[in-house]
User: Fold these one by one.
Assistant:
Number 1:
Amino acid sequence: MDAWSGLAFGFGNALTITNLGWALLGCFLGTAIGVLPGIGPALTIALLLPITFQVSATGAFILFCGVFYGAMYGGSTTSILLNTPGESGSIITALEGAKMARNGRAGPALVTAAVGSFIAGTIGTLGLSFLGPIVVELALKLGPAEYFSLMVLCFVTVSAVLGGSALRGLASLGLGLLIGLVGIDLQTGQPRLTFGIPELLDGIDVVLVAVALFAVGETLYLAWRHMEGKQEVREVGRLMMTKEDWKRSTGPWFRGALLGFPFGVMPAGGTEMPTMLSYYAERKLSKHPEEFGTTGAIEGVAGPEAANNAAAAGVLVPMLTLGLPTSATAAIMLSAFQSYGIQPGPLLFTSQGELVWTLIASLYIANIMLVVLNLPLVGLWARILKIPTPQLYAGILVFATIGTYGISNSVVDLMLLYGIGIIAMFMRRFEFPQAPVVIGMILGPMAEQAMRQALTISQGDWTTFVTRPVSLSILLLALLGLVGPRLWALAARRS
Amino acid sequence: MLRRTLLSTALAAATLPLLGGGARAQQQQQLYSSLHVFIPAGPGGGWDGLGRAIEQVARQAGLVGNFQFENVGGAGGTVGLPRFISQRRGREGSILVGGAVMVGSVLANKSPFGLKDVTPIARMTTEPGIIVVPAGSDIKDLQGFLDALKSNPGGTSVAGGSAGGIDHIVLGLLLKSQGRSAKEASYVAFAGGGPAQAAILGAQVKAGISGVSEFAEQIKAGRMRALATTGETRSLPDVPTLKESGIDITLGNWRGVFGPPGIKPETREGLVKFVTTLHGLPAWKEMMERQGWEDAFLPGEAFEAYLKRDEAATAEVLREIGLI
């Protein structure tokens, strides 16, 4: 089946009342769990796995894909409104999104996230339908050495979030790297910084740290510093995007989508790296750099949110074309294939063409459903900000606590949430930026593992990073990103 | 716990009316009105899958009235194990699903509790390991791979799961069989099957070791070449086992059922009877076929003896690798 006839067949199959019902249920569930920090799409699909004993394969996978895409939409909502990211791909969205909401621009931030998710989700799904097999063959050429170089490139983006003092910013980054070290080392099996606590052996969840830093820290800081003073009720502001907003969002949407999709396809890529790169690119390209980190820039929401959704679609490419589970969600979906007696692998498209194309068609449908479902909700969501500050922040605290406990039912996680929250409170007091902590925590362990894998393969030869052409090019790009802007500024000052 | 129960109940309530009743199989005499299943891993993994399969078959056959699941994941089962031991000690109607991975993680994490602290009921399934090379590799067969290991272990990079896991142990045993030390292995650990498979498909490493089902489809599609499997008998018709190639290594990722510590002999007997009846059902055979599991049923005392041997062999290799 070629792509066109496959899609035609898929749409014919997906557009039945039952299958549309599964898609709607999935989108609804996905949005709901995306909103809750901690409970992600992987856990939700895992909890839904027993239905594979009763429901047809088509119905089950449409439901799962709805949950998967829905979670990506829902994750941005709480990032923007409450500074509480629901999943790791939305952490970067919180940087500008929460600032926009605080300055009465919650509506436009939510709309640009929803429309951007729709555009990027559609581009990603188009990529999955037409380019999948080609892109994945290219992605296989990347080894640990190239991944390490990519992560070095992503580290450059830290410079965009360092804030006023480089020393404070780098100290934050160091804290993130330190937290990232906790747990069993993958390459040697030795526990690091676990202090004999078994719950720490698997490491600390990045969403937990983001919620602790952004939401809990902020709440504690407000409770500490603003005991008295006037009650301010925040302005909700206008809900729709202005003409200017549309103009400023379009570029980031497309750039974010084009950045996100290939990262999603890479077996060791994921959704976090492209959101960071997109944020960095938009900050450098924006005509309003003064809004970044202060009043909140719409580009900083549009770009990363698009990158996140395009990457989510990209993750499905290695899963469907090669049977490779490259994320927790994909791994659980693959185990669902197995409960139908379908062995996912390179032959899936040929042996299960009907199922795969129905699934892809339902992704387009889910995307449309989600934007239709989410746009009218913007007004409702934005109203949350009308709640007076003390009640709102008390609510956020409850919400963050419940969500965190949901990850693992573990008291240790709750103690971590509040422990890191207290550190974040002091960080706010002494003006240490929080974003570098999260970036260090995400990139640090990935970079370390990739580096050690590359060095094991090369038998300890460090030149492997510069003798492989792709790796070298990425490293040069990182160098350019680091010194380029400075040289540019120097040259501009001279002339 | 409440949160997850609420969520799953809500999900079940949302989906159940749409499902309708499954076909009723022949009814058996009910052995438990309610059975508590403790999974020391998150939902969606292999142990969770075995637990849910037991639920599915036992409930339809009428062996058990209803099931409660408790998932406590983390650190290869060593986070959940102490909780099961302390909360369920001496109590009836409760089982734990675990397996080979736990033997290694208990040793490597120096966990104060191990599988010796729970009551072995039965080994249910196993998945042998498989050794593969990229399709374009110049290593053609097992002998070629062994020669490479013998002459240049450092240059023969092998991809697999986390360090100290079953894949790593297989490589360690192979090195030992060639008169080398497990410490010399050039083992590249990957988190999760996807990135490891990608590294083999992209020929970033010389070879790979994992469970048979992980690689079976890639082999069928001609993207990987299988050298040997680690089971007692062949898992794939054209791929020899290590044993028939003259290397005395049999190892599998087995999964099984345990009871709480300190239960009465008749409670244990009851659980053994339950899994034996379950294993005898045609529906169980169907389930295993559908899931692609190999039958490795071994109940009671025999399972206990097997566990002791498995633990000793694992400890020896881990010690040599330098993990314990």
Number 2:
Amino acid sequence: MASIDYPLERPRPKEGEFSFSETLYRWVATVDHKRLGLMYIVTALLFLVIAGLMASVMRLQLAFPNNHVVGPETFNRLFTMHGTTMVFLVGMPFVAGLSNYLVPLMIGARDMAFPRLNAFGYWIFLFGGLLLYFSYIGGGGLSGHGSAPDVGWFAYAPLTSKAFSRGASTDFWILGILVAGIGSVASALNVIVTTICMRCPGMTLTRMPMFVWVMLIDSWLIIIALPPLTAAQVMLLIDRFLGGNFFNTQAGGSAVLWQHFFWIFGHPEVYILIFPAFAILSEVIPIFSRKPLFGRAAMVGAVVAIGFISLGVWAHHMFAVGMTSWSNTFFAASSMLVGIPTGIKIFNWTATMYGGKLRLDTPMLFCCAFLLQFLVAGLTGIMLAVSPFDWQLHDSYFVVGHFHFTLIGGLVFGLFAGMYYWFPKATGKLLCEKLGRWNFWLFVIGFETTFIPMHFLGILGMPRRIYTYAPDRGWDFWNLVSSLGVIAQAAAIALFIWNVIDSIRSGEKAGDDPWDGWTLEWATSSPPPEYNFEKLPVVRSSRPLWDLKHPHDPDWKFEQ
Amino acid sequence: MALAQTYKGDALTLEQGWHMPDRGTVGIAFLIVTESALFTIFVVAYLVYIGKSLNGPMPKDVLDLPIVATICLLSSSITVVFAEHALKKGHLGAFKLWWIATIALGLEFLTATGIEWHKLIYKDHLTIRTNLFGTTYYSLVGLHASHVIVGMVFLLLVMGVTFAGFPIQTQFRRVRFLSWYWHFVDAVWVVVFTVVYVVGR
């Protein structure tokens, strides 16, 4: 049962009445969680396009053997900036943006717990990102060496020491990411406190939407896993600027310690990045299967389990550095352990669809593709968790294929599902369904064409991060196929951007609840007013809107 | 709208019995969690590099137990609790007294650290670039000292506004959060003391 008042006339902000400078001021000075959420997502999309263009240039370079589109130095900068941008400036702001926009709406709150901290988080993230990109102009440093960072996104020691990385490019990498990381921690703290303290009456933890649960655990991982990166980066700064010896092997320091510290952050980070996709699927699949989420309690248990187990698997990135066989065994076992809760999640999403009344709209299409692609990514992940297998394929294109299957096939497909699903809530307009289908199929075809061949290339022995290769290796064909896939992917992204612009201008009006939803965000108007809810809702089950729409058969009669 | 339905009776019972934890309390608790993760990495780096320095000076040659400084910092945790209790009971005079005592004890700790660093740098010629011990020692102790300084800034801020006549008892919650942060800084010192001056020597 719930009590939500729907007055006939709602006051809506009239954007047309403001001049350009006033509108700009309203966005820059805002502390509204919805505006900040949208700013995060738009910024992330912008960086996605930039990082995608970098990837396209790299694929163009690798399309043919002995190609000379870019030189080796530029290629190093491209893959470093591509990886860093995708992880820190695309993935992280999507986490923050989605949780900012949706968590308060879903738990029936009027704003985040700390609105000003929220605005601080966005702006410091943005300027961290800009600082990283300023390296293209300012990265030369006093000695005139280098421009953008070229040490790879995990910046292994001792490559990052002053001796091997002259100029200021590595310092831009350190400081840009450090500053953006402060923003991520601020936003994650805010999500945790909001979820714990701002829930509307009746919204107990057992009734909380699965999206909010996943984002809560995601934020937990962020506040636990990001400080180790910050600490390691501070150590690197001490080494570079004060002459410290943390990672200076000539003074007895350990380069492997950097790897440990980096992956203590780095492995939870990939779960931090994939969790938003888990969160989106857990909302979209039930709505488009017309069934409540299968095994809710098991889903919460699985995500909490991942939140803890993923903190103890980091060294599976380091099987090839020569750890003890005990370490290898431990980290191989713990990595496989994490496959169990992930398997539970895949099973439960599939079981939600089983016997449901499926509606294959664009958000659901992206979810179906996610399930298949993420399953493949998980299986190649289990293969790489076997340390002897990893010794064969470490640092090969097999690994590149594996993590692009998780992060593109998983995360980006999940994000597309989410954007198609919640776009009507944020703008009041539906995205064009026909363009959406084109977007989906082009992206699937492009994605599979680009990334399946990378697995073959890895098995054929092609190492990561080479800028070109000789024609007699047998890598020509699959590299060309892989590069051709980029065209379809780029077309899909361009279609999406066009779809967004066109739909905002002249899209079909969505109404407040276009998908017949069950969670609280569909109870308010589209777009929601600044205060979200005129009267705070009261909920009695995990599907408050189902209860409202079916007063004779409400969930709260059956839920504990 | 068709969805509009109200169940007034139930809504009232729910709203009357609905209490959420305080935002500030949860916020400061998780801030401490994330700060602990930061300190953990520096502590681990220190532990990993114990005895790995290729040249001297070594910890056992140059480090003395900072007994007085440690007693001061740990006592300041007690005085800040007394100050908090005095403020809760509305005894503003006692609050000011205990608060100043806390600041004095914190200042004594920072001064002792300064004297120790001065001795290490100028007498023992141990700098952050000398060896692994120097690098890890100054980083870990420095990270802790910078947290003490942040705590001091806020302690002084509270003292300043109190003596300027601001009714500080209206901000009891915030004073309590500050005292929690101060306890955290003290607890970290217990770890740093154990690692640097007991295990590492």
